[in-house]
Amino acid sequence: MDETEQLLEQVARRVRGFGPEGGTLVPGPLPAPLDPDAVRRAEGILGFALTPLLAGLYTRIADGGFGPEYGLLPLEAAVRQYTAMRASDWGWPEGVLPITDYGCAMLGCVDCRSETAQVLLFEPNPGDPDLAWYADSPALADWLRGWLDGTAWFCDDSEGADLEMAPWAEFRSRV
């Protein structure tokens, strides 16, 4: 079993019987996993492929609803948000898919063009696109592990809550 398979198994174990105590603010049952064809259709609209780990979350675990804060966005909602933001004045970077809503307009996003599926934080509250992007985690796998073990900055028990993230240096080159 490779690293992606192991991580998908850990996430599946975590979300069995999922509810508010399972690490999300979203109550109720999870949506069904997506059919791989739904992922391919979404990729056709986006113009880029999801990373294997991200596609596995959607096709093997659920179509969103689990994960940090308000949980992973359903894939269709993530595609709509990406498309809308690409057309907005924010200069949304190509290949950066919003995957979770932290509240207060902040989004967790996966750079699908990054070899490691780097996770970025979009924090638009300063009102300036050049000040809105931060490197959250070097890899989606690390971000998920931080959620699973409670050490990520967004976890209630995390000691990294005061962590200062570095600005995402690639922002301007990707718009």
UniProtKB/TrEMBL annotation:
Residue stretches making up the Knr4/Smi1-like domain: 33-144
Source domain of life: Bacteria
Database matches in Pfam families: SMI1_KNR4 (PF09346)
SUPFAM superfamilies: SMI1/KNR4-like
Name used for this protein in its record: SMI1/KNR4 family protein
Organism: Streptomyces vinaceus
